[in-house]
Every structure is written in structure tokens, then in C-alpha cells.
User: Which sequence fits this backbone?
């Protein structure tokens, strides 16, 4: 019987994954093992994000708005204002506190960061509607102050 020799082979024979930039040019290559490690790390970060978001909702429902705001601001900064669920939850918190200036600032930053992608057209439309409501609420607040 012939013994099967498991040769490790030449390093060039290892499968690789090519990384591409926005224009489709190859910017590098990584091994399968490196890719799996990066994927596991990304999944762990995603799990942490979910746990933090759940914690912020817990604080929000218990009316501990300062802690909820801190967690949501952290999550929003981590995702560069592109995860609309976080932005919307924080905007709701600001609206509950009648802090229209912070709500408007938050929505404008989110709109600016999502503006370049065509995929986000629906979200941009929602942000625009919310900004319009914010402007109307601010105008009503100014009118009521003028009549007092």
C-alpha cells in the first residue's frame, strides 16, 4: 500500500481573496484565514452594537434619558451617522425633551452622511419629513412665545 504524503504545497497555491476599491481596481489580497479572522471580528463588533442598542432602549423605556443618549451617541459615531435606527431613536429622545435644536443638528448630520448613496433615498425622504416637522414645531414655539 502506498502512503499518501500530504504536502503543504507552494505558498502561491493557497487560495486568496482579492480586495477591490470603489473603481474596481485590486488594492490587495488576503488569505482565507485572514479573511475569516476579519469576518469573526466584524461579527463580534456587530453583536456588541446590538447589545448596546438594546441597553439604550432599556434606559429609554425606564426614562433614564442621559444614559440612553450617551449610548446612542456612541453608536451613531461608530457608524458615522449611517445607521438610521440609532439616529431616529436619539431624535425621538430629543423631541421628547423638546430639544429641537439638537434634533435638527442630528438629522442634518445624518442626512449629509447618507446623501451620497442612492440606496438611502427612502431614509433621506424620512429625514426630510422629520426636519420639516421640526421646523414647523420650532415656528409654532416662536409664535406662542410672541403671543405670550
Assistant:
Amino acid at each position: 500500500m502506498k502512503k499518501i504524503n500530504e504536502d503543504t504545497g507552494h505558498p502561491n497555491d493557497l487560495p486568496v481573496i482579492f480586495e477591490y476599491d470603489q473603481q474596481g481596481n485590486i488594492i490587495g489580497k488576503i488569505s482565507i484565514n485572514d479573511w475569516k479572522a476579519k469576518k469573526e471580528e466584524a461579527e463580534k463588533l456587530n453583536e456588541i452594537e446590538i447589545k448596546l442598542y438594546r441597553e439604550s432602549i432599556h434606559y429609554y423605556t425606564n426614562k433614564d434619558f442621559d444614559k440612553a443618549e450617551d449610548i446612542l451617541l456612541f453608536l451613531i459615531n461608530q457608524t458615522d451617522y449611517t445607521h438610521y435606527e440609532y439616529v431616529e431613536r436619539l431624535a425621538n429622545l430629543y423631541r421628547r425633551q423638546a430639544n429641537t435644536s439638537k434634533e435638527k443638528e442630528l438629522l442634518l448630520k445624518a442626512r449629509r452622511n447618507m446623501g451620497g448613496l442612492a440606496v438611502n433615498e427612502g431614509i433621506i425622504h424620512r429625514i426630510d419629513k422629520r426636519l420639516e416637522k421640526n421646523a414647523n414645531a420650532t415656528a409654532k414655539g416662536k409664535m406662542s412665545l410672541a403671543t405670550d
User: Anything to note?
Assistant: The chain has one domain: 13-143. The longest strand covers residues 26-31. The helical segments are 32-61, 65-78, 84-96, 100-114, 121-147. The chain has a mean pLDDT of 81.
